[in-house]
Structure formats: structure tokens, C-alpha cells
């Protein structure tokens, strides 16, 4: 395993260690990078200089006691699970050349990474969506169920799917109005009975007797990938990783990262076809139907209110996108 565990951040940034990364090191420049999003992790760009060369790295430091997102998700450093031998050996092709070293303390951790920002993408073309879903299917197929049962269950709704609850968004002013607006729209569309049924779901796991689980990224989207080429898409930012149904990653990607004009049914079927090719057998209809129901419920709990609040329902394609998610959610709720 090439990613080194260090005893402190000081060791992670020691001259001896950095000279292994850039021989002939003469100077270091440290720059604080402002980031958007919910996480309170601090990101620093580190530029190493030798006489003939320079090399850029990134250092991520997360104080789990100060990070709002970490607190509401009860995160104790899940991002570092990928460095455990049983996970790393299966993930190596997806994280190759990204990570250099890490440190974990009582309430914080740090990760040192190569600068691969040249490969970052912010969105996908329709063809690229197929590449991303093929990559996701390949990733999910690496894990058997017994590989992942000791890892964080992402369908503990209060800790993951439902982290933007009324109580928790009250801690972050900018989310309040957005949440309230989306909830009003959702209640109006679903009707009071279905909305109450949906709102009362607290533990999705308890609804279904069984569904297969795999290791999940938890936030699979272009922002968290490195697009080397169509056959080599690497994955970064594993802070939301854990154990759960493959469709949670799939629907999160479809809901947050796919152009509203793209046909989600075609994309979903393409993922399933590739997953079955990688695992070497066909999923039964009952198993796949259950995975779809779990994925719909979980992804809607995570993002539907926000999607509604930020969609223009006067736009034909945005309306059809909302219609897709609402109709699928209704179908699941009626069957429960």
C-alpha cells in the first residue's frame, strides 16, 4: 500500500517526507483555498520548489468537532476507511496516484494529495454520463456484501439521508428558506396523506426485509471525480462513504448531476446492464425492484426538497425532471 499513515500533520509535512515527493526541495509555498459547500474542512494548496522543478499538492484538514456537516452526520472520519487494507485493495484503480499520506487524531484528520485538478469536471455530456455510470457499476461490483457490513450504514436516515432536517437546517441560516419553500411545494404535489406517510419514514432499512449492499461513495458526481479518459475515471472525497444499496449512489448522481434533458430511464438501464456484466449474473426482478425503491426513497429524502425549491416548473424539461422523481416516489409510497 503506497499511502502512508503519519503520526501528526507535522510529520505529514516534514521536509524529509516532502523531499521524497520532490527531490532537491528548496522552498515551500502554502496557500489557503476557499471552498464552497457544506463541509467545514480546510483545504491548502502546497507548492514545492526545487532548483529545476515545482510540484503542487493539496492538504485537507478536517476538525470533526467544528465541521457542521461532520457533526450532523456523526462523522468520525469515514473518509479514511478507504485506506483500510480490505477496502483499498478493491479501490486502488479508482484512487491511483491521488493520495500520498494521511494522519488521524482524536477529533481531526488530514490527507495529503497530488494536485490532479487538471482532470476535474463540473458536468457531463450525455455520452459521458454513460462512462460515469459504467465506472460506478465497476466500482460497486468490486465488493461482496460480506466485505462491507462492518462499515457505516448510510440508510440510517437521521445521520445521512435526512441530514437537512428542520432542526438541523436551523443551525445554518442559508438553508432555512430553501428547505421551507421546497417542503411546501412537495406537500402540495403529494397531497397531505402521501406527504405525511413520506415524512414519517425515519428508518428506510426497516421497511425492506432484504436488499444487497455494497461499498458506496455517498456523493458520486463530476465534482468528486477525475476524468482521465472514458475508461479511467477516478474518485475523490470519500467523506460520505459507507455501506448501502448501489442505487443510492446511482440516483444521487442522476438527481444532482445529469442534465434534465437526458433520459434517466436509459441511463438507469445502462448502469444495471453494466453492473450485471461486472458481477457476472443477472439480478432478479424482485431484487432490482427493491433496489430501485430503496434508492428512490433515500435520494428523495436527501435532495428532493432542495431540487423542488430550485427548479423552474415553467420550464418544460425542469418540469419533466420533477415529474420523474415525484411519480417514482408516489409509486413507492403507495406500495408501502
UniProtKB/TrEMBL annotation:
Keywords: Transferase. InterPro entries: Aminoglycoside_PTrfase, Kinase-like_dom_sf. It comes from the Bacteria. Residues 211-270 form the Aminoglycoside phosphotransferase domain. The keyword Transferase applies. The keyword Cell membrane does not apply. GO terms for molecular function: transferase activity. This is Phosphotransferase enzyme family. It comes from Romboutsia hominis. The lineage of its organism: Bacteria, Bacillati, Bacillota, Clostridia, Peptostreptococcales.
Amino acid at each position: 500500500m503506497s499511502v502512508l499513515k503519519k503520526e501528526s500533520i507535522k510529520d505529514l509535512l516534514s521536509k524529509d517526507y516532502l523531499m521524497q515527493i520532490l527531490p532537491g526541495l528548496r522552498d515551500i509555498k502554502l496557500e489557503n483555498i476557499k471552498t464552497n459547500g457544506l463541509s467545514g474542512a480546510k483545504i491548502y494548496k502546497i507548492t514545492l520548489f526545487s532548483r529545476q522543478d515545482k510540484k503542487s499538492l493539496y492538504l485537507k484538514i478536517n476538525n470533526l468537532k467544528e465541521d457542521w456537516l461532520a457533526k450532523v452526520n456523526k462523522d468520525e472520519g469515514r473518509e479514511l476507511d478507504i485506506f483500510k487494507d480490505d477496502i483499498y485493495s478493491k479501490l486502488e484503480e479508482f484512487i491511483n496516484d491521488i493520495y500520498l499520506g494521511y494522519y488521524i487524531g482524536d477529533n481531526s484528520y488530514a490527507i495529503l494529495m497530488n494536485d490532479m485538478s487538471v482532470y476535474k469536471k463540473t458536468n457531463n455530456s450525455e455520452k459521458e454520463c454513460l462512462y460515469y455510470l459504467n465506472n460506478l457499476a465497476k466500482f460497486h461490483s468490486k465488493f461482496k456484501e460480506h466485505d462491507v457490513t462492518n462499515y457505516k450504514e448510510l440508510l440510517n436516515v437521521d445521520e445521512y439521508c435526512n441530514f437537512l432536517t428542520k432542526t438541523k437546517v436551523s443551525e445554518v441560516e442559508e438553508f432555512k428558506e430553501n428547505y421551507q419553500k421546497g417542503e411546501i411545494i412537495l406537500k402540495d404535489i403529494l397531497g397531505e396523506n402521501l406527504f405525511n406517510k413520506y415524512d414519517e419514514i425515519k428508518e428506510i432499512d426497516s421497511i425492506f426485509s432484504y436488499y444487497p449492499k455494497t461499498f458506496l461513495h455517498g456523493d458520486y458526481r463530476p465534482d468528486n471525480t477525475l476524468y482521465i479518459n472514458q475508461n479511467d475515471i477516478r474518485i475523490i472525497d470519500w467523506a460520505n462513504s459507507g455501506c448501502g444499496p448501489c442505487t443510492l449512489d446511482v440516483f444521487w448522481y442522476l438527481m444532482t448531476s445529469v442534465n434534465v434533458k437526458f433520459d434517466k430511464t436509459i441511463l438507469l438501464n445502462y448502469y444495471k446492464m453494466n453492473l450485471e456484466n461486472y458481477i457476472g449474473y443477472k439480478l432478479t426482478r424482485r431484487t432490482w425492484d427493491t433496489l430501485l425503491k430503496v434508492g428512490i426513497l433515500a435520494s428523495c429524502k436527501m435532495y428532493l426538497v432542495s431540487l423542488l425549491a430550485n427548479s423552474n416548473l415553467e420550464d418544460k424539461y425542469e418540469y419533466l425532471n420533477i415529474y420523474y422523481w415525484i411519480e417514482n416516489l408516489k409509486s413507492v409510497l403507495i406500495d408501502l
